[in-house]
Amino acid sequence: MSRGTATLACLSLLCVAWDSAAGQGGSTSERSALAIRYEDGRSTDIHMNGTPLAPRLKGKAKIETDRGNAAIEIEFGDLPRAIKVAPGYATYVLWAITPDGRTENLGELPWRGDPRMKASLTVQRFALIVTAEPYSAVARPSPRIVSENTLKDGEDVATTGGVSYLGDDGKFYGGSGPETDSKTPVPVAAARLSVQIARRAGADTFAKNELDQAVSTLSRMESAYQDKPKDESRWGSFARETQRLAHAARTSAGQRRAAGAGQGPGGFGKGKEPYDNSNRSSALARTRIGYVRAGSRGSGCRDQGSTREESGCATPVHVD
Q1: How far apart are the C-alpha atoms of 114 and 59, rounded to whole Å?
Q2: Fewer CB under 10 Å: which end of the chain, C or N?
Q3: 182 touches 89 (CB < 8 A)
Q4: What does DSSP say about strands 125-133 and 116-121: parallel, antiparallel, or unpaired?
Q5: Residue 102: strand, helix, or coil
Q6: E strands present in the chain
Q7: Whole-angstrom Cα distance, residue 10 to residue 23?
């Protein structure tokens, strides 16, 4: 192997390792899904059938395309609680996977009432899957896939084909405990799990300030929930904010762990403090890696408009 080839190979491996750690503080696994190209200016109905993990699950979706954009309406019949499908998981998330392998979190399926939702995309070819997740703010699909798109018999579409993508390997997920009690409201269980997962990802060491914010908000949620357990207006906003903060802590922990591993003898070695906000050299190092190209995007990217979407949604790294 030539020196140039070896260098490229090493750089590729480093990019994969960085993306895995920085994406949401965990490792990834490659998967594939059926992508459908929808004809412009028409409406197409598809099935959202259950996988072996949820074989009785039945769903459907209507896709309407117009000038390169897709409007999605999806609904399911009897959707079981996620914990009954996968212990340690609290909710369901709808994902779109584009031909270049990007995974887009289209949102959380409602945990009460009819399990239906609407979403939109700025592409005409994509795959749709639903996964069980510990909380809704995740950046990559878990391995717990409960539903995938399939064509109805006789339905005419432009083209179909497989697309590959990277999903979370779920190593921080799963397990049972009071956080996943089937009687606990989904937002409360998800908030508890998000903090638990951030800790598993190393946030106690690498993102303590961010984790402390999540824990503080979780404590406020728990107080409100204990006071009025049936009044979601009292604790719902705290539950959602806990998930957001905990996921930020998880992501920061992954980024800082990866940055420290790449610093060589002067990095986070034996006997050294892994991360210190007062350490100027660490702050400068984080400034140099101020932006990373995210391999997957959640709802935050969609809110930024087409320019950011076309660029692949560079995700800013917070520098204290």
Answers
A1: 12
A2: N
A3: no
A4: unpaired
A5: coil
A6: 28-37, 43-50, 59-66, 69-76, 91-97, 103-108, 116-121, 125-133, 145-151, 159-168, 291-293, 296-297, 314-316
A7: 20
